[in-house]
User: Fold this.
Amino acid sequence: MKRIIIVLLTFLIAAAMAGCGGPGKDKVITVGSKSFTEQYIIGNIITMLLEEQGFRVQERFGVGSMIARQGLLTRQLDMYAEYTGTAWTLFHHHEEKVTDPKKLYRLVKQEDLEKHGLVWLQMTGVNNTYALAIPSHAAQKYGTTLSSLARYVNTHDEDVVFGIAHEFYHRPDGFKKMLAHYNMNIDEANIKTMDIGLSFESISRGQIDVAMVYATDGKLKKYNLKVLTDDKKFFPIYTLCVVTHLEAIEKYPEIPQILNPVATILDNETMQILNYQVDALGKPSRLVAEEFLKKKGLLKKN
Assistant:
C-alpha cells in the first residue's frame, strides 16, 4: 500500500509539473501589432526573438492604434511597436512640435513611464513619417531635398503636379503649411488629392510628378521612387520603438537585452526592403521577419 501511495504521489507531482510547463515554460507574454505591413513584420520580429529565448508568445496582431494603446495600459498586452509622434500627439495631446528625434524619444519615454508605468525600449532608426517622393530619374531635375524642389517649382513655368493625401491636404498643420514652410508656390490646379496608396500608381503612370508617401513604404522600392529629404524639418517625427510596461520588465528583466539589438539595425531603408518583400513580392510577414533575423545573426539557422 505504501508503495502504491508513493507511486501515486510521484505521478501526481510529475503531472503537476507538466501542467505548469516545467522550468522556463511559464514565460508567457502577449505581443500586439497594428494592422499594416510594417507592424506585422515588427510584431513577428518581436515574437521570434522572444520565442528564441524560451518565451511562449500570445499574439494579438492587427488592431488599431487606440486599441493597442489601451491594451497596454490595461496590461492585456505586454508590448507592441509604437511611434514617438503618435504617442506625443495622439496619446499625450501635445501641440508643441519637437524636431529632434532623440529629444522627442526622451520626452515620450519619460512621460509614459511617470504617468502610466510604460517602458520605451531602445529607439530604432525607423522614422515612418509623411514624405514627398519623386521618380528616381527626376532627381536630376528636382534635386533631392524639399528645398531644391521648391526652388525648381518657383523658377520654372512648367506644371509640377502633386498627389497629396486627402487628410493631409485639409489639415491646418498639413500640406498648405508645408508649402509656406518651404516658400513653395503651387497653383491649386496642380494639386490632386487622393488616397495615399493610389499615389504610387498615379506617379508610375505619369499622372502626377510628386507623390505623398510614408517614408518606409515598400512600394517606394517597387516603383523606384526617391524620398526627398525634409531638410527644413517640417514633417513630424515617428520613430519606431517597442513599448512594454514595468510589470513585464520586473517579471522578465531580460526583455531589453533580447529586443534592443534589433533596434540598432532597423532604419528606413531596411524597413522599406522588408515592407517591399511583403507588399510587392507577396511573402508572408513572418517569413520576411525570420529571414531578416537569421541573416543578421539574431536567430538560429535551423
